[in-house]
Write a structure and sequence with these properties.
Oligomer: single chain
Radius of gyration: 42 Å
Number of strands: 0
Distance between the termini: 118 Å
Structural class: mainly alpha
Largest sheet: none
Length: 116
Protein backbone atom coordinates (compact mmCIF):
# COMPACT_ATOMS: atom_id res chain seq x y z
CA UNK A 1 0.00 0.00 0.00
CA UNK A 2 1.11 3.41 -0.73
CA UNK A 3 1.47 6.20 1.78
CA UNK A 4 -1.73 7.85 0.54
CA UNK A 5 -3.78 4.67 1.15
CA UNK A 6 -3.13 4.91 4.89
CA UNK A 7 -4.14 8.52 4.97
CA UNK A 8 -7.82 7.95 4.16
CA UNK A 9 -8.49 5.36 6.93
CA UNK A 10 -6.45 7.46 9.37
CA UNK A 11 -8.45 10.59 8.52
CA UNK A 12 -11.71 8.63 8.86
CA UNK A 13 -10.62 7.26 12.25
CA UNK A 14 -9.64 10.73 13.46
CA UNK A 15 -12.94 12.17 12.22
CA UNK A 16 -14.89 9.40 13.99
CA UNK A 17 -12.94 9.94 17.22
CA UNK A 18 -13.43 13.69 17.00
CA UNK A 19 -17.17 13.25 16.34
CA UNK A 20 -17.47 10.83 19.27
CA UNK A 21 -15.59 13.28 21.50
CA UNK A 22 -17.88 16.11 20.51
CA UNK A 23 -20.96 13.94 21.14
CA UNK A 24 -19.62 12.90 24.58
CA UNK A 25 -18.87 16.54 25.42
CA UNK A 26 -22.41 17.57 24.43
CA UNK A 27 -23.94 14.75 26.51
CA UNK A 28 -21.85 15.78 29.51
CA UNK A 29 -22.78 19.42 29.02
CA UNK A 30 -26.47 18.54 28.66
CA UNK A 31 -26.29 16.38 31.80
CA UNK A 32 -24.60 19.20 33.73
CA UNK A 33 -27.23 21.66 32.51
CA UNK A 34 -30.00 19.28 33.57
CA UNK A 35 -28.36 18.83 36.99
CA UNK A 36 -28.05 22.60 37.33
CA UNK A 37 -31.74 23.04 36.49
CA UNK A 38 -32.69 20.42 39.07
CA UNK A 39 -30.56 22.20 41.69
CA UNK A 40 -32.11 25.54 40.77
CA UNK A 41 -35.56 24.01 41.15
CA UNK A 42 -34.65 22.68 44.59
CA UNK A 43 -33.22 26.04 45.60
CA UNK A 44 -36.36 27.83 44.42
CA UNK A 45 -38.58 25.45 46.41
CA UNK A 46 -36.39 25.96 49.48
CA UNK A 47 -36.61 29.74 49.14
CA UNK A 48 -40.39 29.57 48.76
CA UNK A 49 -40.62 27.38 51.86
CA UNK A 50 -38.46 29.79 53.85
CA UNK A 51 -40.59 32.74 52.73
CA UNK A 52 -43.79 30.89 53.64
CA UNK A 53 -42.38 30.04 57.08
CA UNK A 54 -41.28 33.65 57.59
CA UNK A 55 -44.75 34.91 56.64
CA UNK A 56 -46.41 32.38 58.96
CA UNK A 57 -44.08 33.39 61.80
CA UNK A 58 -44.90 37.07 61.24
CA UNK A 59 -48.63 36.28 61.23
CA UNK A 60 -48.28 34.23 64.42
CA UNK A 61 -46.40 37.08 66.07
CA UNK A 62 -49.15 39.52 65.05
CA UNK A 63 -51.80 37.16 66.48
CA UNK A 64 -49.82 36.81 69.71
CA UNK A 65 -49.46 40.58 70.07
CA UNK A 66 -53.18 41.07 69.44
CA UNK A 67 -54.00 38.36 71.99
CA UNK A 68 -51.65 39.95 74.52
CA UNK A 69 -53.30 43.33 74.02
CA UNK A 70 -56.75 41.81 74.45
CA UNK A 71 -55.66 40.02 77.63
CA UNK A 72 -54.18 43.23 79.01
CA UNK A 73 -57.40 45.15 78.27
CA UNK A 74 -59.43 42.41 79.95
CA UNK A 75 -57.08 42.47 82.95
CA UNK A 76 -57.53 46.22 83.35
CA UNK A 77 -61.30 45.93 82.97
CA UNK A 78 -61.49 43.20 85.61
CA UNK A 79 -59.25 45.18 87.96
CA UNK A 80 -61.46 48.24 87.58
CA UNK A 81 -64.58 46.15 88.18
CA UNK A 82 -62.99 44.67 91.29
CA UNK A 83 -62.18 48.11 92.70
CA UNK A 84 -65.70 49.30 91.90
CA UNK A 85 -67.11 46.37 93.88
CA UNK A 86 -64.82 47.16 96.81
CA UNK A 87 -66.04 50.77 96.83
CA UNK A 88 -69.69 49.73 96.64
CA UNK A 89 -69.35 47.19 99.45
CA UNK A 90 -67.51 49.71 101.59
CA UNK A 91 -70.40 52.12 101.16
CA UNK A 92 -72.91 49.56 102.46
CA UNK A 93 -74.01 50.19 106.06
CA UNK A 94 -73.81 46.57 107.27
CA UNK A 95 -70.68 44.85 108.56
CA UNK A 96 -71.09 41.98 106.02
CA UNK A 97 -70.38 44.36 103.15
CA UNK A 98 -67.09 45.45 104.71
CA UNK A 99 -66.03 41.83 105.19
CA UNK A 100 -66.56 41.18 101.50
CA UNK A 101 -64.68 44.35 100.65
CA UNK A 102 -61.73 43.14 102.73
CA UNK A 103 -61.84 39.79 100.92
CA UNK A 104 -61.70 41.58 97.59
CA UNK A 105 -58.80 43.72 98.81
CA UNK A 106 -56.91 40.53 99.70
CA UNK A 107 -57.58 39.09 96.24
CA UNK A 108 -56.37 42.30 94.62
CA UNK A 109 -53.18 42.26 96.72
CA UNK A 110 -52.64 38.53 96.06
CA UNK A 111 -52.70 39.07 92.31
CA UNK A 112 -50.56 42.18 92.44
CA UNK A 113 -53.22 44.49 91.08
CA UNK A 114 -52.48 47.96 92.35
CA UNK A 115 -55.15 50.54 92.90
CA UNK A 116 -55.62 52.91 89.96
Amino acid sequence: MSAGAWLVPLAAALAAAFTAGIARHRRNRDREEADTLVQLGRAERAVRLIVAQRDEAAAAQDRAEAFGSAVLREHHALREACFDLVKRWESLPSEAGCAHAEQLRRVVRLHGWDAP
